[in-house]
Amino acid sequence: MDKKRIGVLTGGGDCPGLNPAIRGIVLRALDYEDEIIGIKYGWAGLIKADTMPLTLQSVEDILDKGGTILGSSRTNPFKKEEDVQKCIENFKRLNLDALIAIGGEDTLGVASKFSKRGLPMIGIPKTIDKDLEETDYCLGFDTAVEVVMDAIQRLRDTAKSHARVVVAEIMGRHAGWLALYGGLAGGADYILIPEVEPNLEELYNHIRKLYNRGHTWAVVAIAEGVQLPGFTYQKGQEGMVDAFGHVRLGGVGQVLAEEIEKNLGIETRAVILSHLQRGGSPSIYDRILGLRLGKEAVDLVHQGKSGYFIAIKGNELVPVDITLIEGKTKNVDPKFYESMKTFFNK
Ligand code: F6P
Questions:
Q1: Which of 25, 55, 235, 338 has the fewest CB atoms in 10 Å of its CB?
Q2: Considering the entire predicted model, what is its pTM?
Q3: Helix axes 177-186, 141-162, angle to 10 degrees
Q4: Domains in the chain with CATH codes
Q5: Which residue out of 18, 74, 106, 129 has the highest number of ligand 1 atoms within 8 Å of its CB and is therefore the one to mutate?
Q6: Atom 14 (ligand 1): residue with closest C-alpha?
Q7: How far apart are CA 148 and CA 40, in angstroms?
Q8: Nearest C-alpha to atom 16 of ligand 1 is from which residue?
Q9: Could you read off the pLDDT of 158-175 as tens digits, one per residue?
């Protein structure tokens, strides 16, 4: 049997489904009698050679657990050539045949760069933002949408009781998938996403229309990345960028709530769903997908493949050149958003 020594890391924002993927990797590796080395806290762990062995025992009770037993971070080794060299040296010192990186565009972008420098890499796509190119889906999104859906349903109850408007601010960075899908599934009365310039007059008219016809409450879902005219939170947070240059978002929901109250004279509240969207037990879909992705990643290593990430196309797992996702994000098509207005702008 061709036994391998395979490293695994989880990088970027955590999400439900990471532990099932780690479990999938370890269980499949047992079939090949591979050794799996967990690298802690994403790329930070490779810079420092901070590792833990992953055995059957380590993954026996993690299928239903949110987060990641390996820890995660937003470390970008390519910020310093010195860190790149440390990663390459540690990869060799740890005697790895390949590394499986589980992450979003940033983590997989780093894997792509290492792959170009000759380190065998396989990527697994995960992000609650679902904004990765070349794949229909990303691990973690399904569970996060359920959280958003549930939150919006709860907000509808209380908004109705008090005849208020409630604005729910939803994660997703510069993509509106989570806000749009969560808003639709939860029955939001209006949805704003970053891909489409906000039309506040349309929103106000819609709320007026609702109240006039006796629907005296509204839940408005707004993606955190929406740019409201005159809203300067990004400037206000200058310097608050991560190692990949992403601005820390948050606050647009409160601004919108104040605008609604000012313009319509209706009592309005804002809720930031924030990191609640990233925690919790993975959904059935994310559990099964995580297991399948983990297994597939180990199989690809054994097929001698490197420089691929596993795209989800329909129900198929397809290896795709990892360099194709570097620096790209997949956004909601404004035409699709417009067509979905049938369900929230009546
Ligand atoms: O990319 C996932 C995500 O949850 C985004 O939706 C959000 O903007 C960001 O991460 C928050 O990052 P952090 O946990 O570093 O504050």
A1: 235
A2: 0.96
A3: 50
A4: 5-139+282-325 (3.40.50.450), 143-279 (3.40.50.460)
A5: 129
A6: 13
A7: 29
A8: 248
A9: 999 999 999 999 999 999
